[in-house]
Design brief:
Elements: E1 12-16, H1 18-25, H2 34-43, E2 48-52, H3 62-68, E3 76-80, H4 84-93, E4 97-100, H5 120-131, E5 136-141, H6 145-154, E6 158-162, H7 164-168, H8 171-190, E7 194-198, H9 206-210, E8 215-220, H10 222-231, H11 233-252
Helix pairs in contact: 2-11, 10-11
The structure holds 1-deoxy-D-xylulose-5-phosphate (DXP) and the ligand NCC(=O)COP(=O)(O)O.
Residues 16, 18, 52, 54, 59, 79, 101, 109-110, 140, 198-199, 221-222 line the site of 1-deoxy-D-xylulose-5-phosphate.
Catalytic activity: 3-amino-2-oxopropyl phosphate + 1-deoxy-D-xylulose 5-phosphate = pyridoxine 5'-phosphate + phosphate + 2 H2O + H(+)
Main location: cytoplasm
EC number: 2.6.99.2
Length: 253
């Protein structure tokens, strides 16, 4: 995938392996191995592997990132909080992509997008440090124009639109969230940003997001791990990629 993907071309799938590590950590065993999951996901059609090294290391550990980095055939998208510890670690690993995400120790999962506007200086410093190592930086934000303006002003080339509220709602509220994401994707592309999306996407809510031509990549994890329990890991990845491609090609027909 080139960094400058034309709008409306085939959509990428980033498979997030966090919750393979959650299952491993549940008993402190060596299995299921997130590294093996990542390599098999690549063979099954993943365009990149996403993993979130949280400050509390509740799932992915430092050793997972270190072990996986030299083995990936596609590319690593490392998610990290805007802290000096995490930025320094990411600069040592030098993945293709780093996605800066908000973190709260008390959260069960990511609850919203990074507030780039409020934390402009800290985000800008982190982006500069990462870019100095040749890392492409993505900011995980809500579909909000002010957040996208701040992202473009800082010079981060990629955004990942938070789809959690879309995933967690239904009916008119979800329809409104979908429209917000559509408008956000259009605006992001108009600002020259690569627009990705993710969080809470699964096998029946992904279609509406994959149909948005301006979105270049979806990062999906929890639902793929859950579906893998019933169909197997590689099939779960293949099925998600097939749904995304069929939706995107259908939407373009
Ligand atoms: C940033 C994001 O939306 C996901 O990577 C999510 O953070 C997965 O990690 P958790 O399930 O630990 O929140
Ligand atoms: N950034 C979203 C991601 O990597 C996966 O989120 P989820 O599918 O586990 O909710």
């Amino acid at each position: 995938m080139s960094f400058l993907q034309p709008v409306g071309t085939i959509i990428d799938l980033g498979v997030n392996i966090d919750h393979v590590a959650t299952l491993r950590n549940a008993r402190g065993t060596s299995y299921p191995d997130p590294i093996r999951a990542a390599l098999l996901a690549e063979q099954a059609g993943a365009d990149c592997i996403t993993l979130h090294l949280r400050e509390d290391r509740r799932h992915i550990k430092d050793a997972d990132v270190i072990a996986l980095a030299p083995q990936l055939l596609t590319r690593m998208n490392l998610e990290a909080a805007v802290t000096q510890e995490m930025i320094d670690f990411a600069c040592r690993i030098r993945p293709a992509d780093v996605c800066l995400v908000p973190e709260k120790r008390s959260e069960v999962t990511t609850e919203g997008g990074l507030d780039v506007v409020t934390h402009y200086k800290a985000v800008e410093a982190a982006v500069r440090q990462l870019q100095a190592e040749g890392i492409r930086v993505s900011l995980f934000i809500d579909a909000d124009q002010a957040q996208m303006d701040a992202t473009a002003a800082i010079g981060a080339p990629v955004i990942e639109l938070h789809t959690g509220r879309y995933a967690d709602t239904a009916g008119a509220e979800q329809a409104a969230e979908l429209e917000r994401i559509k408008r956000g994707a259009l605006y992001g592309v108009s600002k020259g940003l690569k627009v990705n999306a993710g969080h809470g996407l699964h096998y029946t809510n992904v279609q509406a997001i994959a149909a948005i031509a301006e979105i270049a990549e979806l990062n999906i994890g929890h639902a793929i791990v859950g579906h893998a329990v019933f169909v197997g890991w590689e099939n779960a990845v293949r099925e998600m990629k097939a749904i995304m491609l069929a939706t995107r090609l259908g939407a373009r027909a």
